[in-house]
């Protein structure tokens, strides 16, 4: 059965995404994404978690510029970036 991987249990996935949100490399993104993950991830659908997982693959400086409104995000991330930005008041100086 080599090459076959089992689906990641939801609780394991949530813990992994929360950890990845906390350990970014850019302090502002640590603060923004940790707060977002704590308040939103548990209520997100599997499809939304897929999009968040993909967003976490982006470079922190790009993520920060998108969330702060300094640069438009790629269309595939637009809705999620806007959702994160709504909760980032005070960290980005934008809201």
Explain what you see.
The protein has 95 residues and is mainly alpha-helical. It has helices spanning 10-22, 27-40, 46-55, 60-67, 78-86. The radius of gyration is 14 Å and the shape is globular. The chain starts with 9 loop residues before the first helix and ends in a 9-residue tail after the last helix. 16% of the residues are buried. The mean pLDDT is 91.
User: Counting H and I runs of at least 4 residues, what is the number of helices?
Assistant: 5
- Strand portion, in percent? under 5%
Give the overall form.
globular
CATH architecture: Orthogonal Bundle
Could you describe the largest sheet, including whether it forms a barrel?
none
Protein name: FAD assembly factor SdhE
Keywords: Chaperone
Family: Belongs to the SdhE FAD assembly factor family.
Topology:
Elements: H1 10-22, H2 27-40, H3 46-55, H4 60-67, H5 78-86
Features:
single chain, 95 residues, mainly alpha, DNA polymerase, domain 1, 5 helices, globular
